[in-house]
Structure formats: C-alpha cells, structure tokens
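Lecture notes, structural biology module. Today: joint structure prediction for complexes of two components.
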Amino acid sequence: MRVFAELSYWQQTTLRSVGVLLAVLLPAGAFVQLFLFKLVSFMHNRLGPNEAGPKGSLQLLAEVGKSLQKEDIVPEKADRVLFKMAPYLVVASVLLVYAAVPFGPDAWFTNLDVGIFYILAVSSISVIGILIAGWASANKYSLLGGLRAAGQLIAYELPMVLAVVGVVIQAGTLNLQGIVGAQANGEIFGFGGLGNPFVLTQFIGLAVFMIAMQAELTQTPFDMPVAESELVAGYMTEYSGLRFLLFFIGEFASAGAFAAVAATLFLGGWYLPGLSLTADYMNVVGPLVLFGKMLVLGFIVFWVRFTFPRLREDQLQRFAWTVLIPISLLNILATATLKVVF
Amino acid sequence: MILAAEEALVAQNIFFGLIAAGTIFGALRVVTTKNVVHAALWLVLVLAGVGANFLLVGAEFTGVTQVLVYIGAIVVLFLFGTMLTRSPIGRDEDVDNPAWYLGLIVAVPLLALLSYAVWDQWGDDHIDSLTPAAAQTTADVSDSIFSTYLVAFEAIGFLLTAALIGAIVLARKE
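The predicted structure, tokenised, for the full assembly:
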C-alpha cells in the first residue's frame, strides 16, 4: 500500500514544494539556534541569548524580526540592480541543491539520474552571487572579500568533487536514491545487518569532503572572505536588513544542504538499519533520520569553527592543492582498484 | 511553423520558445552592454539557456555539465579576471572595439555553416516523447565515451594535461 504514489500529480508536487521550503528553512534555523547561539556560548563559557522565550529559544525569531524591520540601504555608488540581485542568487543556489536531496522513498523533489553531479553543479552558482555582491557594493573591502571567497570556493570545489567520486565508484550510480539504496543493501564481509554506510570504506573521502565543505561554507578556519579584523564583513559589508538576512540564511541553509548531502553520501541518508527501505512510514521517519544525521555533521562543522584559529590565504591554497587533492586522487585510485578486484 | 516537439507536447514547445528568446536576448546584450562585468553576467543567461535546452530534450548529463563547466567555472574565471584587473561600475565607453564589424567575416559564415549542419542532419525531426526511456542517461554517455569515442577521449585527456603543464611552466617563469 503506497499512499503517496496514489496522490494525483499536483498534490504530490505541492507536497514536494512545501517540503523543500521547509528543508531549507528548518535546518538553517536549527543550526543557528542550536549551534551559533547555544553551542558557542557553552564553548566560550558564557550564557548566550537567554531572554527571548524559555532559555532563549525564541532568539532566532527575534533576530529575524529585527532584520526585517531594518532599512534596506543601497550605497550611492553601487550598481543598484546587481547589488539587489546578489543575495537572491546565493539563496537560489541553496534551494536548487535541496531540490535533489532525497528524504524518503517518495519524499524527494526531483529524482535526477545525475543527482550528486547536479548538486555539485548548482552549488557553484553561489560563487557568482558572492562575486557580484562584492563587486556591486563599490567598496574595496567588499571586492577583496568577494575575490577571496571566489578563489577559495574554486580551490575547494575540486577536492569536494574528487571526494565524491569514490562514493560514486562504490555505489555505481550518481543518483542519490541509488546511493542510499547501495548503502542500505550493502554487506560488510558478507554481514548485511548494518548495510554498508560508506563512512566505513570511504572515511578518507568523508574527511576530505568535510574539510572542503568547511571551506565552501567559509566557516572558520577558512573564513578569510569575511574576516572581520581585515575586511569588515567582506562581501556582506554594505548589506543591511532583508538582504543581509538572505545572505545569512544562505550561509546556514547551505551548511544544512552540505550536511544533508554528506549524510546521504557517507552515512546512509534517510535510511537506518532495521527500518524498511520502501514502506510508506519512511516518508515521515526518513526526513527525521536524515535531519538527525545532519545535526551530527553540522555539530562537527561548528565545533571546528569555534575551536580553530583562522588560516592565512597562502596556507589555505597550499593545503587544497598539495594535500587534499593528492589524497583524494589516491583515494579514487584505491577505490577503483578494489572495485575491480572484488 | 517549425516546432521542437510533436503537437501534443505543448509545454515543450512553449518553453523551448521562451528559453530560446531569453538566450538570444542575452547573447545580444553580451555584445551591446557597456560594462564588462554586465557582459559576463549576460553570458551566464546565454549559457544557462543552452543548458536548459539540453534538459528540455532529456540530455540531463550534458545539461548539468554545461552548468558545472561553463557557469560554475568559466564565467567565474571571467568575473574573477575582470574584477582583479579593471572593472569600473557604470558605463565604460572603451569596451566597444571600433573594428567590431570585422568579426562579421567570421561570425556570419559560422552561423550559416552551423545552421546548415543542423538543418541537414535533423531537418524536420521532432522529439517524439519524453518517456524516461527516451532520455539520455549517464550510463549511455559513459558507454559511448569509453567504447566508440575512446581514442578521442584519451587524446583530449592527453591534450588537456599537456596544456595544464604548459600553463604551469609559463606561470612559473621566475
């Protein structure tokens, strides 16, 4: 009995659209509230926001309300059209990433044959938004921040793609549902009780992916594009009100998006051993499972963010080109060899 | 009237028209705009339109590759380069090359040649249906690359590696 599959096409599409919007906003909100407000306060040994709502739990809504009512300032010398467009490009890129992430057997927005390849392609659109924001602000700090961000995102996109290749070789498909299925049905030396989450065989890939993800999200130790002490706030310097909020949502929603992609590729996605891979209830349980895995990976991202000092620009580039890329190439070589041997 | 798809696939025809119009408009703006950065961004519209038309005919892999390579890498490189060097905000009268009409000598024959080649190959062919089976899958692409076009594929790989090494040698003169 498949309830979802019997709905008519427009009902399915509506449910999927609402689902994607929720998938963008909920993890972004949860990451900000749990990690950026509460976790960092705990790590800094301070109280953090505790006035709005019980234990400060409504702080996020207060922040959104504050940002919404602020004036939307455009600098006089700025390129007005591009300045206003840039934040929407960044958010659109995140929405497009979520469009291909599966949350359950039927809970997906699109089930693309080229799934993970598509995600890597559309996630690179945000670079254009950031470059435009930096340039259109007509501010040297903004332009420097935009250029730093672009250089960093280009350098770390390559190790990210290469880290994914290992998973694709092992799963034998680019389709994200297929990758979830391959992990659920896999066996570890003939023992199939746990499936075969690729974190076990592709732990090098996961490590490279997480480091590249940290850089793509411009989180510390890779936050030179928005380094306060050097560049004010980088490409976001001139933005205020709703448009600043959009950049902020874009940053944390893409943290959620990359965490979801990493969870799907390496931790088995929406599937947990012991649950059904096809049953209807997984359309409700699946998103919760994936969300739990996202929180685990997001915790690691923010843990690193609050613990490490900032790298220098040359250290960042050298690390990507001389450490991460050779390691991920070796990982591909080893995975392909083992795939052929076994 | 020439339609991209059979009569029944109305949506395909409408969207092909919209995407094609947007692509042509973007292409005209690339060469008429007075700002280098704006030109690069109009180019994004052109390349995205081409990618969207690939998706429309069911060539998912080609369409996504178009976005990854051209929008995600080439245009970002253009923007990066122009912003690193000289990119004033507003109108820049120097971007027009006074000898632009010489480009017509290349552009018009190329347009004629490409139009003829497309027309000669496909003529009145339509996209019959967009069933999943008709769409071109990644497996189809890789099968043809690693069998029919294996030699060409290896040759391009060799050429690109040589170009990469050459670029490094040129850049590290000191």
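Point to remember: Chain A is about 65% helix and 0% strand.
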